[in-house]
Amino acid sequence: MPGAAEPERLNVWLAAHPMPAGDPLLAVKVGETVSASYHVIQVRTQERPHVHQEHDALVTLLEGRGELHLGDRVLALRCGDTVAVPRGTAHWFRNTSRHPAVAFATFSPPYDGKDMVPVEPTTH
Questions:
Q1: Residue 27 to residue 19: CA distance in whole angstroms
Q2: Pairwise CA distance, residues 66 & 5, whole Å
Q3: Which phi and psi angles does 60 have, rounded to 5°?
Q4: N or C terminus: which one in the chain shows less Cβ crowding within 10 Å?
Q5: How confident is the model at residue 123 (pLDDT cuts 50, 70, 90)?
């Protein structure tokens, strides 16, 4: 997986993993170890508010900008920003870019694709 320091490689990777038309987001697992899994997440519009009850996440925005709703806070994120999302914390990302935002997420333990519990959004 390309790093943020190599934008041309990221663009090649994104071209090989296009978002389906009309989908709000696309998450692709790019690797896994015994203790963590690694994913590239493209967000066209926004995620639904949710909680991971058994997974911590570390998310770095590689392209774009947006708002991360994290518990009772709203964080303005720009390219290069990194945020820890502790398990059990309600969160969701809203893209404010004209193009899909792209993030690299590390989940610990490795994400099983099932630990996503929908929640009601908090109001601010």
A1: 9
A2: 20
A3: -120, 125
A4: C
A5: low
Structure tokens at 74: 């709203």
Amino acid code (one letter) for 110: P
* Encoded amino acid at 68, one letter: L
pLDDT in tens, 43-60: 999 999 999 999 999 999
pLDDT digits (tens, 9 = 90+) for 1-32: 544 456 788 999 999 999 999 999 999 999 99
**Residue ranges per domain, the chain?**
24-111
Q: Which of 60, 105, 94 is nearest to 79 (CA)?
A: 60
